[in-house]
Design brief:
It comes from Prunus dulcis (Almond). This protein has 187 residues and is an alpha+beta fold. The protein is built from six helices and eight strands. Strands 1-2-3-6-5-4-7-8 form an eight-stranded mixed beta sheet. A hairpin with a 2-residue loop joins strand 2 and strand 3.
């Protein structure tokens, strides 16, 4: 497989400083597409200047005549809204494609050790190599994904509210109070 860096042309309206990386393979005269990474310079600048260093990582299926996976890195801006940072279209979601995506992300943002960064993912811990690539970063699981597993065995609105209250706790004592309350409801 070859990687191509697609330069931004200044003769057309563009976004100088954007990163577009494509992974292809030549099969004789034909070119076979494997992966595409995109991080627009304007989004990169906006994230650095206006967002906290918190990055949500997730993937979803692309259906239709050209199936694959969409991998995305999303930030949180000052009003707690979602802020797109970078995305990739890959052939399959696995450790290799996540490593490729996160290596490019790491280079785009000049992350050397991950200190002061937080990465949030679903429970597919073995697929997303955050702890390997960013050993000093904080690593957390998405409460939405945890709740989807939680609600299979623990039904009811009050249990849901207690779980989210525990997730929102900003101090250890507050978290312990909420967890105690959650455990009492489950008894």
């Amino acid at each position: 497989m070859r990687s191509l860096r697609v330069p931004t042309k200044s003769s057309i309206p563009s976004n100088p400083g954007s990163t577009i990386m494509m992974k292809i393979e030549l099969e004789g005269e034909k070119v076979r597409f494997y992966r595409l990474y995109i991080c627009f310079a304007a989004l990169k600048t906006g994230f650095i200047e206006g967002c906290r260093p918190i990055v949500g990582l997730d993937g979803c299926h692309i259906k239709g005549p050209h199936p694959g996976q969409l991998l995305a890195a999303v930030g949180i801006y000052e009003n707690n809204g979602m802020y797109p940072i970078a995305y990739a279209i890959v052939e399959i979601e696995n450790k290799s494609t996540w490593t490729w995506f996160l290596d490019l992300f790491k280079n785009d943002f000049g992350i050397n050790n991950g200190l002061s960064w937080v990465f949030i993912t679903d429970k597919q811990k073995s697929l997303i190599p955050v702890e390997t690539l960013f050993p000093s970063a904080e690593y957390r699981h998405c409460v939405g994904h945890l709740y989807n597993n939680f609600k299979l065995l623990h039904k009811g609105l009050e249990l849901k509210q207690r779980l989210w209250a525990a997730a929102r706790a900003t101090t250890v004592p507050w978290f312990n109070v909420e967890m105690s309350s959650l455990q009492k409801l489950d008894d």
